[in-house]
Amino acid sequence: MAYRAYERIPEKAVARLSIYLRCLEELETEGALTVSSQQMARRFGLNSAQLRKDLAYFGQFGIRGVGYHVHFLENSVKEILGLNQEWKVALVGAGNLGSALLKYKGFSPKGFRISAVFDANPHKIGKTLGGIEIKGPEEIPVILRKENIRIGIIATPASAAQGWLKNW
Asked: Domains of the chain by range and CATH?
C-alpha cells in the first residue's frame, strides 16, 4: 500500500480509522458488498467529506459512482492499523483483572496475543496463568527484548503502576 509519505497524516485522521473499521466490519457481517461515503456517514453518524479525506491520506480506495468495496477497504484499513499481523503483548499483574484479561477472547481476533505475564508477588512467580509462566519484574527487560514485545498492559492498582514503569 503506497502512502503519501511527503504529507504528514494528522493523528485525528489515524484515530478515526478505528471507527471506520468498526463500521466496515458491521457492514461485512451484514453481507454488504459496496458502500458509499454518504451511506456510511448517514448510517454511522460520520462526516462523509471527512471520511473521504481521511482515507485519501492512505491511497485511492473508492470508485466514483460505486463507492467502496467493503471487504477490500476493511482489509486495507486493517493493514494501515497494523491489525493484519500478530502483536505480542506483556501483561503486568496476575491478579483478578490480569486473569480476566488473559481469558478475554477479544484480543486474538484483532491480532493481539498475551505472551508474557509478570507479577511482583513472590507466591505467584513461577506459577502459570492461562498457560503462561508468571515471571518477576526483574525479568521484564530481558523477556521484552527476547520475545520482541512492543505492547504492555498494566493491570495493577494505580499506586503500583508507576513502580512497574521503571522496569520497561
From this structure: 11-81 (1.10.10.10), 87-165 (3.40.50.720)
Cβ atoms within 10 Å, residue 151: 12
Euclidean distance between CA atoms 91 and 21, whole angstroms: 26
Model-wide pTM > 0.70: no
Give yes or no for residue 161 having a pLDDT over 80. no
φ, ψ dihedrals at 67, nearest 5°: 105, -145
pLDDT tens for each residue of 95-123: 999 999 999 999 988 889 999 999 999 99
Q: Are 90 and 115 in contact (CB under 8 A)?
A: yes
Are 99 and 129 within 8 A, CB to CB? Answer: yes
DSSP category for residue 119: -
**pLDDT digits 0-9 by tens, 14-70:** 999 999 999 999 999 999 999 999 999 999 999 999 999 999 999 999 988 889 999
CA Rg value for the chain: 20
Q: Where are the alpha helices (DSSP H) in 95-148?
A: 96-103, 140-147
Write out the H or E segment, with its range, that includes residue 48.
Answer: helix 48-56
Spatial distance between the Cα atoms of 161 and 168, rounded to a whole number of angstroms = 11
